[in-house]
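Worked Example 4.2. Consider the chain below.
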Amino acid sequence: MKTTLASIGTGALGIAILLALALISVLLVQGGVWLSALLFPWLAAINALALLVTLFVLLPNAVFSSTPKFAGSGMMIVSYVFGATLWVWSLLLTYTLWGGFWLFIGLFMAGVGVVPLAMTRCVDCADVRCAGMGLQPCRKSAAKRPGSLIE
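Applying the procedure from the previous section yields the following structure tokens:
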């Protein structure tokens, strides 16, 4: 009798732990979406400023022989700004267009899965709101490549 009650209690404890883990993951996804929605306007402004700095400060400095290391380091830093903005944008688009389940799947793919999922959904529905999203990875890789070549 005691072993039966112990096994029932162990099973109930296991189910409670699984439910708690599921609840924690749902709350983390919801909190991440809330934080991303809060940070995205700031990141968009910083992204625009970083693009202007790249075009008008870093690229001209890469041409001169005295400052290419400065320009390369700056381009590497700016590429992280572009990447963070792209990731937050993709997270919000995946959640908005596909929902929390697919966002969880994208986050489960090493965290970077939200970017291809968002691009896939934008191409799938031909959404005009995210037409410029296809240019964002190109801008990030273009900023990172010269930075790594100059240093």
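The radius of gyration is 22 Å. Residues 32-150 form one domain. Compare this with Example 4.1 before moving on.
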